[in-house]
Write a structure and sequence with these properties.
about 250 residues, alpha/beta, Rossmann fold, seven-stranded parallel β-sheet, two-stranded parallel ribbon, 9 strands, about 20% strand, globular
Amino acid sequence: MKLKGKIALVTGGNSGIGLATAKMFKAEGAQVIITARSPETFKVAKTELGGQFDVVQTDVSQPKQLTALYAHIKTTYGGLDVLFANAGVALFTPTAEVTEDFFDNQFNTNVRGLYFTVAQALPLLNKGSTVVLNASTVSVKGMAGASVYAATKAAVRSLARSWTAEIPVENVRFNVLSPGPIETPIYGKMGMPADQVAGFSEHMKSIVPAHRFGSATEMAKVALFLASDDSSYIAGSDILADGGFGNV
């Protein structure tokens, strides 16, 4: 029960790494709030997960929705002990085909949304709390077609350093989880046809030293480590959970 008595928020906790982490946080004793982005995903999450978690519809790219989320948390729980800023989008395309909307969509969620997810949480974070930021191995390893997505995740990595320097570590610890290729629904949302997604998957398996995709549960274990006292002397760090992809 590494999070016994803790209040934890997982943005984008209705699927993939976020859902696996929310389940693990709950199993370790936390009361868990999760967000779902759209009315449609919220409805499904509320129906399927409402018995386990406090589900709140929140698009992190919309500051007013974040304000409403934190007002709910303050009224209901009084504060927060753990924040997993996980909500994000991943879209890939060659630079020559990037449009302003394509660029803004990812930066508005992955950077602007994450930034204000943390900024608005600060008054609610209890002393000794932890913040885990979800980034990606592509923040340190170049990948064709990932220029915009990688830039958003490099920004996330930078934010962890800045916040660690700015906010006393004894008050809040900031760390980054950078997944490599993970078996989650996100690959079906990248805007590529199914055959291209399958080809991409096989290519990634061939170049990852572990020769496989990771699982959402494996990522949740890393998030739990960073969120708990097991990592009490780790701050401003980036954990590459990627089967060796980013370091080889």
